[in-house]
């Protein structure tokens, strides 16, 4: 999907599914298994500008859905131009916590804007860059909400119906594009979820032989 020599992996899912943890664990494992540079990042907040935009959209004053969608798209454009594309051009593996599918799920599904419009906005902002593989950590939103701690942000406060619609949108998009998406049950124990993520990502990126060689080398040293 990307013309760059690197690999691009995105994690998607509702709040409380464990994306940040699994981005970190997968990034560490891919670096060890492949010997490649791995860049782990997130949206919004993967750049200095993104940190400020994250504060505005997640902890700032209420805003209308179109404004929210435009701010996420602005963050994504800058993130891709300054972090993602340069890393891919170096041959790195980029693993991001959220990408354009989150905008479609949250602003189109959750906020009920036009799905094609929201997706088109992000594709324009990124120059059409899509991940090689997208991992959907799927979980009942009620269970995900119970895992959260601290003061809820604007999106976490949006209500049960909002989060039900976002989950349905994620699942619908995954079903429509099985070549890019893998769906993992995030209700399983963390180690089991990560093991499944590794197997699926390695297979989608055609890294299975490299990964098997790395595992065999580790076993021999042990």
UniProtKB/TrEMBL annotation:
One Pfam family recorded for the sequence: Thymidylate_kin
Entry EC number(s): 2.7.4.9
Sequence positions that bind ATP: 13-20
Record-linked InterPro entries: P-loop_NTPase, Thymidylate_kin-like_dom, Thymidylate_kin_CS, Thymidylate_kinase
Domain Thymidylate kinase-like: 11-197
Molecular function per GO: kinase activity
Catalyzed reactions: dTMP + ATP = dTDP + ADP
Alphabetized UniProt keyword annotations: ATP-binding, Kinase, Nucleotide biosynthesis, Nucleotide-binding, Transferase
Superkingdom classification of source: Bacteria
UniProt cross-references to PANTHER family, sorted A to Z: THYMIDYLATE KINASE, UMP-CMP KINASE 2, MITOCHONDRIAL
Family per similarity comment: Belongs to the thymidylate kinase family.
Record function comment: Phosphorylation of dTMP to form dTDP in both de novo and salvage pathways of dTTP synthesis.
Name of the protein: Thymidylate kinase
Species: Isoptericola cucumis
Name of the coding gene: tmk
